[in-house]
Every structure is written in C-alpha cells, then in structure tokens.
C-alpha cells in the first residue's frame, strides 16, 4: 500500500509542480554555472547506494570545497540556492527518486554512505526502510542551516548537536509507521514550512531551535577558547 501511494502521489506531484520545477531549473541555470541537479550519493534501503535528485543550491563541486553539512552562512550556497533551500524547494525533485523506487515520500532522510556505515545496534533498523523526502526529524528541525550558522566546523556541530536527536526520531518512525502517520507527517511538513515557529504536539519534548542554537554557540565558544589558548 505504501509503495502504491508513493507511485500515485509522486506522479501527480511531478505533473502538478512541473511549471514550478521548470521555473526553478531555469533560475538555477541563469544564476550560476553548472548543472540543474545535484546528484549526491546517498545510502538507500539496506544501505544500498543511489544518487539523489536535488536542485543544485550550491556552487558546482561544492563537496570538494567543504563538508556535507551546510550552514546559512556557507559561502558555497548560491543566490537562488538560498531561496529554494529556505522553502525546501530543492527537495521537490526527489519526487523522481520516489517514482523510481529509491525513496519514499515519508521515511528517514537519506544520509551519505559513510554516515550510515557508522550506525550501531537498534539504529540499524533505520536502514530497513526506504529513505524519504520528509520525516519527523525534518519537521523537528526545518532550519538546519540556521542552527549551524557561525559554526567553524558545520559537520562537527551537526554530529554533536543535531544527529543524535535525528536518529532518535528516525527510530521512532520505524516503530510507529503506518499510512495514517505518513499522511500526518506530510501535512505537518507543509504547515512547518509556512509556519516556522509551529511545533506539533508529538515533538514538544525535543530541543527547540533556540536550545539547539545555544548548543552550537557553546561549540563556537569552545573553539574560540581553544584557538586563543
């Protein structure tokens, strides 16, 4: 049933959003040299690698300049990229991956292969599912770039501040998933995009944006102290 829902919904989505997808593609081409899509290698179901379709929001070969985590002040992000990242429009092209069966509309966000190879114990259950365009973790923290802003090492800040909670929420989805939950997550995701400060009741117990920023600022202070010392 989930796969049938993914096929129907992604097909309809690609047709309905085709004018918007075309407009984004043209803007990206006019804004900076390079391809329309970023085709990053990600770990899929069972850890099997696949290439994600994502509208390019950074300069070409950005991964050769810096790490996989991106803050709001990352100089690699293009002008068009800042806009499409703000409204999650760069993720729309992943409907292609959903249609191809590499992803689902709802499921744990796909990570780079190296990160999933580090998963231990019960967290390996996350790999039993197709990765998704959105999930509980995406709703919990819809402004990853804002949280990481100013961090001298965005990847380290991501690993220490964000990833532990993301893994907990992905595992929570593994244990509670069903079609009704998927529909709820899709609706919540849309609400979160237009109402940045809104938090669903299911996520009230998790750290807020302000708390996450506080943790990152502590890391920034630690780095500054270490450098001065």
Total domain units: 1
State the helix count.
Answer: 10
Largest sheet features: 2 strands, antiparallel
Q: Helicity range of the residues?
A: 40-55%
Q: What structural category characterises the helix and strand content?
A: mainly alpha
Tell me the Rg in angstroms.
Answer: 17 Å
Residue stretches low in confidence (pLDDT < 50, at least 5 long) are: none
Please provide the ordered H/E string of secondary-structure elements.
HHEEEEHHEHEHHHHH
Mean pLDDT: 92
With strands numbered from the N-terminus, the spatial order across the biggest sheet is 1-4
How many strands in all? 6
Distance between the termini: 59 Å
Q: What share of residues are in beta strands?
A: 5-15%
Categorize the overall geometry: globular
Description:
With 229 residues, the protein is mainly α. The protein has one domain. It has ten helices and six strands. The chain has a two-stranded antiparallel ribbon. Helix 2 runs antiparallel to helix 3 (79-86). 34% of the residues are buried. The mean pLDDT is 92.
């Amino acid at each position: 049933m989930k796969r049938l829902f993914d096929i129907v919904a992604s097909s309809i989505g690609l047709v309905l959003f085709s004018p918007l997808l075309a407009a984004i593609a043209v803007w990206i081409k006019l804004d900076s040299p390079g391809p329309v899509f970023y085709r990053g290698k990600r770990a899929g179901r069972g850890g099997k690698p696949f290439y994600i379709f994502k509208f390019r929001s950074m300069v070409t070969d950005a991964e050769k300049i810096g790490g996989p985590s991106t803050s709001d002040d990352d100089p690699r992000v293009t002008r068009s990229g800042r806009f499409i990242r703000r409204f999650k429009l760069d993720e729309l092209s992943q409907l292609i991956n959903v249609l191809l069966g590499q992803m689902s509309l709802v499921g744990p966000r796909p990570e780079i292969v190296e990160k999933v190879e580090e998963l231990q114990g019960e967290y390996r259950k996350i790999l039993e599912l197709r990765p998704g365009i959105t999930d509980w973790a995406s709703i919990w923290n819809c402004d990853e770039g804002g949280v990481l802003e100013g961090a001298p090492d965005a990847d380290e800040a991501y690993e220490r501040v964000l990833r532990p909670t993301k893994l907990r929420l992905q595992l929570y989805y593994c244990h509670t998933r069903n079609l009704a939950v998927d529909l709820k997550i899709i609706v919540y995701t849309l609400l979160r995009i237009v109402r940045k400060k809104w938090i669903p009741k299911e996520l009230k117990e998790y750290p807020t944006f302000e708390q996450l920023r506080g943790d990152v600022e502590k890391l920034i202070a630690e780095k500054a102290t270490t450098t001065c010392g």
